[in-house]
Amino acid sequence: MNIDKVVPDAATAVADIGDGASIAVGGFGLCGNPMDLIRALLDHGSTGLSVVSNNCGVDDWGLGLLLAHGRLAKMTSSYVGENKEFERQFLAGELEVELTPQGTLAEKLRAGGSGIAAFFTQTGVGTQVAEGGLPRRYDGDGGVAVSSSAKEVRDFRGIQYVLEEAITCDFALVHARRGDRAGNLQFHASARNFNPLAAMAGAICVAEVEELVEVGDIPPDEVHLPGVFVRRVVAVGTDTPKRIERRTVQEG
Questions:
Q1: Which of the listed CATH numbers 3.10.180.10, 3.40.50.300, 3.30.450.40, 3.40.1080.10 matches domain 10-117+166-235?
Q2: Can you tell me the distance from the alpha carbon of 68 to that of 136, in angstroms, rounded to the nearest whole number?
Q3: DSSP structure class, residue 221
Q4: I want to staple 162 with a disulfide (CB 3.0 to 4.6 A). Which of 92, 130, 150, 193 is the partner?
Q5: What's the pLDDT band for 31 if we cut at 50, 70, 90?
Q6: From CA 52, how far away is CA 199, in angstroms rounded?
Q7: Nearest Cα to 169, choosing from 17, 23, 20, 16?
């Protein structure tokens, strides 16, 4: 049976993402951000979105575009230090933020995509990650309106572990270097860090690919994410700039 998951453009790919949707978004820093899908979602106009991603881009790139237009209601991330508007919205009480250790966030997404409800990890034991009290939303006057709850901690072989629940989302938006018509994807370098995991966690995964190829053109051993996790594929080419968060150079 021939399964063709290709859609004509990014606007079509995100057309059913409505207000209040939860979305897992790939990317590591600004590497591997699904920029064409993010811009299409911005144009689509959905608001009140709950987004799970390693970070929230910068003020004018990545998820920072949606943030700047007030489209995000909640952000679940591990790192948010490069976005001034993110800081402003969080402290002003306009944005709920669930900070999660990076490895834990990766495993929460992988577990969600694998049908695992929760898992135990040592990360966060003895901190507010496990004990609760991390600010998730401020009241705009310097007080905390919503804080994180305590999590179950259990002893295994004399070592304490904290219980972390898996993450699943309504949608996933990811960027891949290559993809075929059946949705099999290949990622480039560190873009592979979070894109496959985000894809797994979304009930409907939309993948933008720089190069669209026919089924069988990607050798099986080079498929980084099988098409069973992907619902839609859109070819976007290589014209979108690839940016970095901060350029550091040495005087020579």
A1: 3.40.1080.10
A2: 19
A3: G
A4: 130
A5: very high
A6: 11
A7: 23
